[in-house]
Amino acid sequence: MLFNSFEFFLFLPLVFGLYWFVFQHKLRAQNLLILLASYFFYGWWSWAFTGLLLLSTLLDYAYGFGVAAANRRKAKIFLWLSIINNLGILGVFKYYNFFAVQFQQGFELLGIHSNPTLLNIALPIGISFYTFHGMSYVFDIYRAQQKPVRNIVDYAVFVSFFPLLVAGPIERASHLLPQVQKVRSFRYAQALDGLRLILWGLFKKVVIADGIAQLIDPVFTHYTDYNSATLILAAIGFSFQIYGDFSGYSDIALGTAKLFGFELLSNFRFPYFARDIAEFWRRWHISLSSWFKDYLYIPLGGSKNGQNKAIRNTFIIFLVSGFWHGASWNFILWGFLHACAFLPLLLTNRNRKYSQEIVASDARFPSGKELLLMLGTFTFVTFAWIFFRADTLQNAFGFIDGLFSNWGESTTLKPNYILFLILILLLIDWYLRRDERSLKVPANRLLRYAIYLSLTFAILFHMDGEQSFIYFQF
Fold first, then answer.
1. Around Cβ 257, how many Cβ atoms within 10 Å?
2. Rounded to whole angstroms, how far apart are CA atoms 158 and 223?
3. Model-level pTM?
4. Same domain for 118 and 244
5. Per-residue pLDDT, 474
6. Catalytic annotation present for 222
7. Looking at residue 434, what is its pLDDT?
8. Residue 317 belongs to a domain
9. C-alpha span between 340 and 387 (Å, rounded)
10. Same domain, yes or no, for 365 and 468?
């Protein structure tokens, strides 16, 4: 079920009504309702894969007790069983075909011909997210940061909570489980904040991201038909398309969770205002970046065991992050480019320079230096997005070649409309940049409701079918 679908607009009020008006102050009933609603939400896409979600949930629920054993050798065995099971599930459904083809090509170079059997099944939606939920739970128990949950419904809600089930944010057990286990009371201000986030998220997805996609998708598909200026505009457009699409999803997820009394982790903090690539990654897909930092980078030694190991660990985390996004050399190269951009900051010990405050936090406008730094970071990120967007490495390099070599005539594109959508997003983000979790609205009631109505009408006007979210494929 998509957040931008007619079915969801029926599903959400129904679950909300049952949750607060029928089962209010009945914690077990509320959690069971959330669990059933989450499986229904997931099953709307494919009931066949709800079994895989259930299997993943049951395995990590059971492993949690084994990992909590006082005998550390026994605990480590169960930890590795969880890792093998979770990565095995991901490996089969997400990476099997990729490795099968790579081995086939490698053997052919040696003169050995093979015909591997490939899996002809769809990638289970959200598999990369809910497997990481389960792994973080088991890791935290092993580290004694979390106790095993005995109520399986509570644990299953943590894994499959429908607002975050298919595209995050990737929650931590220590953050979400306590909210699952305590009685929740309806708070009007929290629910109102949630509705605002849902409205803003839908606007970013339906109006901005989908509006840009309609114009630039043909450019990426037939890039040889367009000149360099058009390709540059399309690349910039995709930067804002993927931001509007994914941050829009995250806003809707956070807003929906607020309606049920939950506070999820932030996933975006205005990443295109970042002044270097390190700050970008502290502001883009925050839950994934922090997951890799806590469960991969730090266990590998982080940056505390010498410069060489710090460099090694940096490349590992970025390459794994790229591979997490998809079984393709495009994503691996995308991760490699970001590692290369991060490396000078690491070597000069400037990777934490912008870790505390947002740009122009005490001013209305950025300084000239800040503006140049933001433009430089955005230019690099936009260039790297080409590998993320292209279907193959060949298409990515062909697109890049066209950026610099084809200044002839172009087919028609609507640059003014793309730039208009981008400007709207940038202006509103700049206004909100000090707090991503609360949308500041004018105190004047008439103006406030005029904004709500304008956003609503814009969403309804631009809604053309159910356009899937980009991160559903990961």
1. 23
2. 43
3. 0.92
4. no
5. 66
6. no
7. 79
8. no
9. 15
10. yes
Let me know: does 267 contact 286? Beta carbons within 8 Å.
Answer: yes
Question: Cβ contacts of residue 65 below 8 Å, gap of 6+?
Answer: 148
In the listed set 186, 201, 227, which residue is the last one of a domain according to the structure?
186
CA dist., res. 180 & res. 173, Å (int): 10
Structural domain count of the chain? 2
Structural domain ending residue among the three candidates 136, 158, 186: 186
What is the mean pLDDT, run by run of 10 residues, along the chain of 474 residues? 86 96 92 96 87 93 94 93 92 82 77 78 84 93 92 95 89 92 93 93 92 91 90 94 93 95 92 95 93 91 85 94 90 96 93 84 88 96 96 94 81 75 89 75 83 88 77 70
Is the CA virtual torsion 289, 294, 295, 296 positive or negative?
Answer: positive
Domain presence at residue 284:
no
User: Can you read off the two tokens belonging to residue 323?
Assistant: 């591979």
Q: Please, where are the H alpha helices in 260-367?
A: 277-283, 286-292, 307-325, 329-347
DSSP 265-277: PP--S-GGG-SSH
Tokens 């806003």 correspond to 251
**Residue corresponding to tokens 């492993």:** 63
Give the gyration radius of the chain's Cα atoms.
23
**What's the Cα-to-Cα distance from 306 to each of 97, 310, 311, 312, 381, rounded to whole Å?**
37, 6, 9, 10, 28
**Got the DSSP string for 413-443?**
--HHHHHHHHHHHHHHHHHHTT-TTS----S
Q: Could you tell me the residue range of the domain that residue 358 belongs to?
A: 189-275+354-473
Per-residue model confidence (pLDDT) at position 235? 94
Same domain, 133 and 245: no
Residues 82 and 126 in one domain: yes
Specify whether the backbone of 168 is left (phi greater than 0), alpha (psi in -120 to 50) or beta.
Answer: left
Would you state the pLDDT for residue 364? 85
Tally of CA atoms within 13 A in the half-sphere of 318 that contains its CB = 21
Q: What angle do CA 245, 385, 103 make, to 5 degrees?
A: 110
Tell me if 426 is assigned to some domain: yes
Q: How far is residue 388's CA from residue 329's CA, in Å, rounded to a whole number?
A: 10
Q: Are residues 264 and 382 in the same domain?
A: yes
Selected catalytic residue, list 175, 325, 338, 462:
325
pLDDT value for 466: 67
Residue 95 shares a structural domain with residue 207: no
Three-state DSSP class for 301?
coil
Tokens of 337: 């480019």
Whether residues 266 and 148 fall in one domain: no
User: What number of other Cβ atoms are within 10 A of residue 159's Cβ?
Assistant: 26
Maximum separation of any 2 CA atoms in the chain, in Å: 75
Residue type, 464: D
Same domain, 85 and 214: no
Which residue type sits at 374? M
